[in-house]
Amino acid sequence: MALPYLELVLGFMILMYIFETYLDMRQHRALKLPRLPRPLEGLVSQDKFERSRAYSLDKSNFHFVHEAITILMDTAILYYGLLPWFWMKSEEFVTRVGLNPENEIIHTLSFLAGVMIWSQITDLPFSLYSTFVIEARHGFNKQTILLFIRDMIKGIFLSIILGPPIVAAIIYIVQIGGPYLAIYLWGFMFVLAIVMMTLYPVLIAPLFNKFTPLPDGELRQKIENLAASLMFPLKKLFVVDGSTRSSHSNAYMYGFFKNKRIVLYDTLIQQCTNEEEIVAVIAHELGHWKLNHTLYSFVAVQILTFLQFGGYALVRNSKDLYQSFGFDTQPVIIGLIIFQHTIIPLQHLVGFGMNLVSRAFEFQADAFAKKLGYSTSLRAALVKLQEENLSAMNTDPWYSAYHYSHPPLVERLSALEDSDSKKED
Ligand code: ZN
Known about the structure:
This protein is mostly helical. The chain contains 15 helices and 4 strands. A hairpin with a 5-residue loop joins strand 3 (251-254) and strand 4. The longest helix is centred in the last third of the chain and has 45 residues, at 344-388. The protein is globular. The N and C termini lie far apart (68 Å). The model is unreliable at 421-425 (pLDDT under 50). Zinc ion binds at residues 284, 288, 362, 365.
């Protein structure tokens, strides 16, 4: 007898929803606490705390509504067989415009175009509300509706240009795949990732933001000295105009081998009054590089991608799987979508594991900056960024263990202090 795949997938989706909503409720309760966690008393002002609390609670309420609607829509789409219906409709569309519906690539592109239109429409009210109501209410949104629409159109254009060749290549690979299918698919995705990592900063990111070299001065000198002392091959040092969209702040680095770039958000520079604090944030980022964190994460993602394709290659010819989702044929894209759904529980488990590792990496990068003598400035910077971003001050331990890629501020500060006291002993 065939396994009831569809029912199992729906069951898991609903169980995950219940579990994650329970975590959300725990976090919501933590966010409601009227007082700062003890270690932050005196570090964070009462005014900032009140504002971060209001912001977090607003986002939390919105999240409950968004998640509830998403689970209702997703289960309805699967349960009522909207996927096969939509697949059939897209075949009709291909025929009507005079193209060959027997061509799986054309049929798939028509199907995906429909999916994209659907998801743009259903996402729109949520992203509008989040940007122009929640972010605006708490003073973060710097975006005009015009800029918002322009970003959206640019994003759609990008997927129209990049999507079809990638989809066509994947379908072609599956069609010729044979016993080494997983290796071919992984190889393709690997090359694609390298190409995107090369092109993204040069071609795509500049479509949305302006990158200008950090002007000469004390800050630039300090960052260059730090990079040189660690033998970090810093090729370019940019400031990005994050402030045109939002007053959230950040810093990151990218680039291969001997060709590294650091990008500072202009908001970060505005918010850190003391240059040492910005340098401390960079020292933390350089810690990720020195300790090979970026490489480890990249390798982990590659292994996971390979395993996923391996799993897909195993089940892609299972008639039962397709039939249980309402398909008599076995189109490649449908196989991939169904497979994605069947491994949801595993994906959540892996996500939890990745967060665990990521938090360990954050502690290590903090310790690295501390070893370079930035403990005090890094602590100050972390508190300031937490304040300026109005990040949640009180967090539920279960929620943060499951969702957070970065440790809660209280934990990071205390780890930075711990290593202080060890040194004094
Ligand atoms: Zn980090």
